Amino acid sequence: MVYDVIIVGAGSMGMAAGYYLAKKGNKVLMLDAFTPPHEEGSHHGDTRIIRFAYGEGASYVPFVKRAGELWQELESLANENLFLQTGVVNIGEPTCDFIQNVKASSALYDLALEHYSAAEAMNKWPGLFLPEDLVACFEPTAGVLRVEACIRAYQKLALEAGASLQTNEKVLAIQAGEIVQVQTVHNLYKAKHLIVTAGAWATELLQTMGVTIPVTPTRKTFAWFEADEELYRDENFPAYCFEFADSTYYGFPSIDGAGLKLGRHDGGEVINPNTPLRPFDDADLVDLQNFIHQFMPKHGAIKYGKTCKYSMTPDEDFIIDFLPKHQNIIIAAGFSGHGFKFSSAVGEVLAELIVDGKSKQDLSTFKLNRF
Ligand SMILES: Cc1cc2nc3c(=O)[nH]c(=O)nc-3n(C[C@H](O)[C@H](O)[C@H](O)COP(=O)(O)OP(=O)(O)OC[C@H]3O[C@@H](n4cnc5c(N)ncnc54)[C@H](O)[C@@H]3O)c2cc1C
């Protein structure tokens, strides 16, 4: 049997693509090395921030706005609450690029944004402590996606639309051609088109067909802390991003009584994605604790920490493109620790690229030939 499309990696991006392609009437096979959602890749840990006034650059705004529309649509199709409108507060020095980009995004695209001095922010959110040289830009319509539930919802819809999913089926090698051949641990599959959405494994997988992409798998850590619910629960405290000259932190209010969640975005060890990650340890904790002691001083003790994988590109922009020598193979990778919020729109874009050869979104930032 020859499929219209095989998707290697049915995680954040691949599962959404599977749905949009099956909905358009394609014969789709999704293959995953594990059983998504799972804790081996980049999509576990309950929550992901979605913000629209985009600190990484205003060029992302149309794409994330489309993602927001599709998340709403998914919620209504799945009849499930996937998005929590907690608001997101972006904090940094007023002159830093991130804050400047947040403001520019809001001005260009008319996005609601509230501006607070450090003192005003501490008054609004008594759980916060800010030195006076920092400012806060609060986006009230932004919030939090329930990451695993989103993937489960896309999986259900994709299967209902006729897609097939093979789990625990690691792809070992890809052979390009008019008909692409995909060798897994168990089988050889064939398709007219291939999408590679293999997250932290994208680089090693493409190497099996002699293609090199600059995507580096990285170990990341995050943790939950006991929280005074009056100060830190999601009705009273927003999700947050802190940008400093030498570090970036992000986190979540206490949702469903889980505690304050905190992670560091920059840095992290380069890893082999096949080697089990070193578990969350004291060194990971010290870094997060230094941050939380300073900026959310009314937090409680650590509850637990976890590890996760980022896949970083050198410029931290994504890769969404056809392979130059193989126009029936698309790669969507290198989501550099800020991709989940886009995954609904990435799924739609991948379906457009396969069916129409082009997308309604401007994908020029994500081309492979920029490297
Ligand atoms: C701790 C943490 C916090 C984050 N916070 C945010 C946030 O707040 N907001 C945000 O927008 N983004 C955030 N991100 C980033 C976001 O989660 C990722 O960018 C996104 O999940 C990447 O999606 P993906 O599809 O590329 O990878 P994944 O979701 O990991 O999917 C890749 C899939 O490919 C499969 N696979 C790999 N190799 C093979 C193979 N050879 N054969 C078969 N299957 C294979 C894997 O099993 C996996 O299921 C965060 C990431 C982490 C780790």
Automatic annotation (TrEMBL):
One cellular component term from this protein's GO annotations in UniProt: cytosol
SUPFAM superfamilies, alphabetized: FAD-linked reductases, C-terminal domain, FAD/NAD(P)-binding domain
Entry protein name: N-methyl-L-tryptophan oxidase
This protein's record includes keyword Transmembrane: yes
Recorded superkingdom: Bacteria
Residue span, FAD dependent oxidoreductase domain: 4-353
Keyword entries, A-Z: FAD, Flavoprotein, Membrane, Oxidoreductase, Transmembrane, Transmembrane helix
Membrane-spanning residues: 6-22
Cofactors: FAD
InterPro entries: FAD-dep_OxRdtase (IPR006076), FAD/NAD-bd_sf (IPR036188), MTOX (IPR045170)
GO molecular function: flavin adenine dinucleotide binding; sarcosine oxidase activity
Keyword Flavoprotein in annotation: yes
Gene3D superfamilies: D-Amino Acid Oxidase, subunit A, domain 2, FAD/NAD(P)-binding domain
